[in-house]
What we know:
The chain has a two-stranded antiparallel sheet. It has helices at 27-39, 42-48, 53-67, 84-112; strands at 72-74, 80-82. The chain has a single domain, classed as Winged helix-like DNA-binding domain superfamily/Winged helix DNA-binding domain (Arc Repressor Mutant, subunit A, Orthogonal Bundle), CATH 1.10.10. The protein has 113 residues and is mainly alpha-helical. Helix 1 (27-39) crosses helix 2 (42-48) and helix 2 (42-48) crosses helix 3. The chain contains four helices and two strands. The longest helix is centred in the last third of the chain and has 29 residues, at 84-112. This is Molybdate transport system regulatory protein. Residues 36-85 form the HTH lysR-type domain.
Amino acid sequence: MTPLDLKPTIKLSIMNPLSEENALFGPGIAALCRGVRSTGSLNAAAKSMGMAYSKAWRIIKETEESLGMQMLVRDGAHGSTLTDECITLLDAYDNLSKRLQTESERLYKEVIS
C-alpha cells in the first residue's frame, strides 16, 4: 500500500451558529433520520443501528433543541415521520457529503502526485 492507494474521508457536521448547545447534525443523526424515513419508526431505526430507543430519543431531542427545529412528527404507537424541514436538511446533508467526498478525493490525487 502506498499513499497513492489511500483516499481521504470527510465527515460533515451542520450546526446552528446561534445555539449554545453542542449537538450537531452529523453522520450519526443523519443515519438515524434515514432509518426513520425508511422504517417509519424511531424505535426500528434505533434497533437497526444497534442503539437503544432511549438513546435515539435523547439524540433527536438534543439535536432539535440545538438546531431550533422539529425533526420528527411522532404519532405514538403508529411511529414517526420526518418533518419537511428535516427532509430538506437530510437531503442537503447527503448531497453535500457526497460532493465533498468526491472533491476531496480529486484534491488528494492532485496534492499527493
